[in-house]
Amino acid sequence: MKITIMSDSHEHWDNLRAAIAIANKQGCEVLLFAGDLMAPGNGLAALKTFDGPVHMVFWNNDGDIYKLTHNSQWTNIDIHGDIYEDTIDGLKVMMNHYPQIVNWAAKSGDYDLCIYGHDHSYHYSTIDNTQLLNPWSILGDKEAAWFVIYNTQSKEVERIIL
Hints:
Elements: E1 2-6, H1 13-25, E2 30-33, H2 40-47, E3 54-56, H3 65-69, E4 77-79, E5 84-88, E6 91-95, H4 99-108, E7 113-115, E8 122-127, E9 130-135, E10 146-151, E11 156-161
Parallel strand pairs: 1-2, 2-3, 3-4, 6-7, 7-9
Antiparallel strand pairs: 1-10, 5-6, 8-9, 10-11
């Protein structure tokens, strides 16, 4: 199964929409968003265009959290608060916006894949048997915007540059 992992759009809606279009075209079945969407209406409208379920966490730049969490029109979007935990295609996944929290989770050995955002830098490493991943940022503030497609079977990461 292919899942797409994104973070830190910071209201760059054209980049977010372009990334989602690519993820849909590539056949991704789940979208994980590691926080900092910002303005809820435009951001959620963009995320809604993904062809499958969207799971997201929020944190320090998510605008109006009340509007993020109290809008029933976003039927394919689940907002999990600070931490997302689930099993996807047999892999135990944890996601939080902050690298420190996700590093602790990865070191616990309880997860196969731990995801974070926040610092707008790409990171991919393995701690024991846990993969630790920051997909970069959709806003593209330091370099071009990008996101990743993760293959749950091969456990390979493909960076997609916009």
